[in-house]
Amino acid sequence: MDDESKKRRGGARKGAGRPRTDSRLFTFRASDAMAEFIEGQENKTDFIKSCIQRVMLEDLPRLEWGSVFPASRLKKASLPFFDIGIVAGFPVPLDNDERAQDIDLLRMLCPHPESSYLIRVEGHSMRDAGIRSGDIVIVDKSNRNPTEKQVAVCEFNGEYTLKHFVMRDGVGFLVPANPDFPKIRVTAEDEFSIWGTVTYIIHKPSE
Length: 207
Prior knowledge:
Shape: globular
Structural class: alpha+beta
Radius of gyration: 23 Å
Order of helices and strands: HHHEEEHEEEEEEE
Mean pLDDT: 76
């Protein structure tokens, strides 16, 4: 076969192969007693997931300023979606159901539900970032490398806080989005880690 024929035949076809997902397959061995108990469950997969989920809850931050809920425990909800590019100008009719399509609200807000959490915020330190006290933020725990413009849940000396994380000349700072609050310098002596990154903010419109 000449080189030209090899070029025509080589390479993967677009769309070929198994589609990528955000889930993984696990297998494990269980003792006779444990296996018998699992076999007695009506839905073995859901039962095992719920057991793991309860253990994962123990790893959630004990936030004094809010409550934490795993996104994977939310019920699925679909809503009609009108993809018409509405503007704040002349009225546009939205009464034609044929123009609407159902979307999975949870999947849209949480592309990675197994690693996403909903946190109710208390406090005003991130006011200018559009986060008000009482809002719910969706946090992706799989993203622990936020940009300076993103908002992160940070663990700082045993406490959790919602801030921008900014590096300046090799020094890290926790920066609020409210001039009434001071920025916090992170030193080598501090216990610090980024727990997750905020992906969406849910709040009611101003009344």
